[in-house]
Specification:
11 strands, 11% helix, globular, three-stranded antiparallel beta sheet, Jelly Rolls
């Protein structure tokens, strides 16, 4: 019994020590200063004409071949898709006031996901809500499950949101709690060195 108690204590300590440290960023300049050189995708290679809206099947990634993107039109490394199984949509400027090519679920109350073929620990995005400003619930996942949850806001133009985790991120879910329709532009992602976030001046608390 004593040995079992010791084992349980060690397991509990290990689980506590393994908890990921996750930081969120609302300032794009700070985020990009801390994590330079991330892979970016602005969706500018879309096949959709300017000042237009078009929907088609997902996912959206480097292999997509539909009315929205040709193969190779999206950078390697991630997939974006509608979590509720519906089509995705592309809006091009200046349709509904968007200032950059914007992607998202075609149905206002559907949720969405960014998943990564190679796990990352830094990700930034502009959250766009053309119909009305509103919140979106966000959950970050690693190989072992949830790393944390938060809520961010979207509007026109897009509102920046970023995350850093010292445990690698495999996917991020954006859950629509209202019916404003969450859309996204200007994605940034990558696996960054821990040294880039290791100085006292660079430590950020979650907010």
């Amino acid at each position: 019994m004593k040995n079992l108690t010791v084992i349980m204590a060690v397991l509990l300590l290990t689980a506590t020590m393994a908890t990921a440290a996750v930081s969120y960023y609302a300032d794009q300049a700070i985020f990009e200063g801390l994590f330079p050189g991330l892979t970016t995708e602005d969706y500018s290679a879309t096949l959709v004409a300017p000042n237009s809206v078009q929907s088609d099947f997902g996912p959206l990634n480097s292999a997509t071949n539909n009315l929205l993107f040709a193969p190779g039109g999206i950078v390697d490394g991630f997939s974006f898709d509608n979590l509720d199984g519906g089509d995705n949509v592309v809006l091009t400027p200046p349709f509904l006031g968007v200032t950059a090519v914007t992607v998202g679920p075609n149905t206002f109350d559907h949720s969405s996901e960014y998943s990564f073929s190679v796990p990352v620990n830094a990700f930034g995005i502009e959250i766009v809500m053309p119909m009305a400003p509103g919140p979106v619930d966000i959950e970050i996942f690693g190989a072992g499950g949830s790393l944390g949850t938060t809520t961010a806001s979207g509007a026109v133009p897009g509102v920046f949101w970023g995350v850093y985790s010292d445990e690698l991120i495999t996917r991020i879910e954006f859950i629509e709690p209202v019916t404003n329709g969450e859309l996204f532009s200007n994605a940034q992602f990558g696996a960054v060195s821990a040294l880039e976030n290791s100085t006292w001046g660079n430590i950020k608390t979650s907010f």
